């Protein structure tokens, strides 16, 4: 027996489940198929983000930060903490509770939007047919007018260099599941995932070394901000080796021996655990995409046009699987926009205003163009920088480090990009995204009152500094 729908979404992560919910809100009969299984065998919607990425990693980052502050910062506030002990089992239990409280909520959201959730694998058969295979092996055929591929991404494995063994050599998910703090921890890759995971275990007592093949740190971030972040990470004890190209990683009962080349010399380091965090790849396993004729790029991403339509009629794709910024919020917006377009509404994603965040301490956040990108694209620019050292709120938090940098167009005064490093900039960046979305000028923000004392004032001061109008900061000499 075949169940018929208006829309079938294959993948229940940040791109898939919002697409399904929005389509249901718009009156479509919708099914969402997701194959995720947690390590304990329990199925869950939410994809990598809610189960093994964004949410559990932020839970551990918060817990490890509190542990670190109790040991090193509370005394400055007049709070003496004696005998602070780490209960890693409880920390991990809390992380899992936070994650599963959100994944279980998706089923309630489905119910409210009239979406039918299927836990298992979905394989496209053509003509709108999808073969659903439950985790117990039972199969049935679902049919729909349109099918959406939202199967996300998976960690890249260095099979010839550092193959995962899920014990000594792990991916980003495995790095969130350690039951003991490694004495010496190695991380391959100094990107967002690498520095966040490195920070978690460093705060908890591990000696962390991060090996990055590229010569520059966080090349996607404005260079000035990246240098500031690197300075603080090293000060905190992260040993970040840039230009270190890993040749091999061999695990045994003692740990992992990693051989790498740096400055023309071959070096070897021994670690208790090794995290491989060198990026993510599109996940299309068991989907039947290629058999159906769905075109993929050389890197395996699903090719789509400006309407997220694939090479096969009635088949669309959104999220990590189509490439671009592999960010949950970008996937959410694509899923929602696609649902609205399928319902006949006008909707779009502004890819020039996609924020990015690194949840370390200090945090790093950015949106729009860096100074280098703006110059390479031919803009005549003006910049403004304001330090959190001048912020009363940052001082009260005992976190007066970092700064905000604003890049604007000389000819139009429009803000082109904002890059931040400092306390809670993950929350502050929202105002900058809104500024880019509405094509705000530096004058627009300069004339906008900001509450005092707040961290957001530092963004305001940076905007004022662009035109030499800063009140609490240092203006550039003309």
What does this protein structure show overall?
This protein has 478 residues and is of the alpha/beta class. The protein has three domains: 2-155 and 281-349, 3-Layer(bba) Sandwich (FAD/NAD(P)-binding domain); 169-278, FAD/NAD(P)-binding domain (3-Layer(bba) Sandwich); 353-466, FAD/NAD-linked reductase, C-terminal dimerisation domain (Enolase-like, domain 1), CATH 3.30.390.30. Helices cover 30% and strands 26% of the residues. The protein has helices spanning 16-25, 47-52, 54-72, 88-113, 192-203, 223-235, 289-292, 328-342, 371-376, 392-396, 425-437, 442-446, 456-466, and strands at 2-10, 30-34, 115-126, 129-134, 139-149, 153-155, 169-170, 184-188, 207-212, 239-242, 245-251, 256-262, 265-271, 273-276, 280-282, 315-317, 356-358, 363-368, 381-387, 403-409, 415-422. The strands form five sheets. Strands 1-2-3-4-5 form a five-stranded mixed barrel. The longest helix has 26 residues, at 88-113. The N and C termini lie far apart (76 Å). The mean pLDDT is 96. Its cofactor is FAD. GO terms for molecular function: dihydrolipoyl dehydrogenase (NADH) activity.
Descriptive tags:
478 residues; FAD/NAD(P)-binding domain; Enolase-like, domain 1; 3 domains; five-stranded parallel β-sheet; 13 helices; 21 strands
């Amino acid at each position: 027996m075949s169940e018929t729908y208006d829309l079938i979404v294959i993948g229940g992560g940040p791109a898939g489940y919002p697409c399904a919910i929005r389509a249901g809100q718009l009156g479509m009969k919708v099914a969402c198929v997701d194959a995720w299984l947690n390590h304990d065998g329990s199925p869950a919607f939410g994809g990598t983000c809610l189960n093994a990425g964004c949410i559990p990693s932020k839970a551990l980052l918060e817990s490890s930060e509190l542990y670190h502050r109790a040991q090193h910062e509370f005394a400055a506030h007049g709070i003496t903490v004696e005998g602070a002990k780490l209960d890693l089992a409880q920390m991990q239990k809390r992380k899992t509770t936070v994650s599963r409280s959100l994944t279980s909520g998706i089923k309630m959201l489905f119910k409210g939007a009239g979406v039918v959730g299927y836990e298992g694998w979905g394989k496209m058969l053509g003509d709108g047919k999808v073969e659903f295979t439950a985790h117990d092996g039972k199969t049935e055929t679902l049919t729909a007018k349109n099918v959406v591929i939202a199967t996300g991404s998976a960690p890249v494995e260095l099979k010839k260099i550092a193959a995962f063994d899920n014990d000594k050599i792990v991916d980003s998910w495995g790095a969130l599941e350690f039951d003991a703090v490694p004495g010496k921890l190695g991380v391959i890759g100094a990107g967002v995932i690498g520095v966040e995971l490195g920070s978690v275990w460093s705060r908890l007592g591990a000696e962390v070394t991060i090996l990055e093949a590229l010569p520059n740190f966080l090349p996607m971030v404005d260079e000035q901000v990246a240098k500031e972040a690197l300075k603080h990470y090293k000060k905190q004890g992260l040993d970040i080796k840039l230009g270190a190209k890993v040749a091999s990683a061999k695990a045994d009962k003692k740990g992992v021996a990693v051989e790498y080349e740096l400055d023309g010399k071959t070096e070897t380091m021994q670690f208790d655990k090794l995290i491989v965090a060198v990026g993510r790849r599109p996940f299309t396993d068991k989907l039947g995409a290629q058999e159906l004729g769905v075109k993929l790029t050389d890197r395996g991403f699903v090719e789509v046009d400006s309407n997220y339509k694939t090479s096969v009629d009635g088949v669309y794709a959104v999220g990590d699987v189509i490439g671009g910024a592999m960010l949950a919020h970008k996937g959410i917006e694509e899923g929602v926009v696609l649902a609205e377009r399928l319902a006949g509404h006008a909707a779009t994603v502004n890819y020039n205003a996609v924020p990015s965040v690194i949840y370390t301490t200090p945090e790093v956040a950015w949106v729009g163009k860096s100074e280098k990108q703006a110059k390479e694209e031919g803009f005549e620019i003006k910049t403004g920088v304001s330090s959190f050292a001048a912020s009363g709120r940052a001082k009260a938090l005992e976190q007066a480090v970092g700064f905000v940098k604003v890049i604007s167009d000389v000819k139009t005064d429009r803000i082109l990009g904002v890059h931040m490093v400092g306390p809670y900039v993950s929350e502050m960046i929202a105002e900058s995204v809104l500024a880019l979305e509405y094509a705000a000028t530096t004058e627009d923000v300069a004339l906008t009152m900001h509450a005092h004392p707040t961290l957001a004032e530092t963004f305001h001061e940076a905007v004022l500094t662009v035109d030499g109008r800063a009140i609490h900061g240092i203006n550039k000499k003309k």
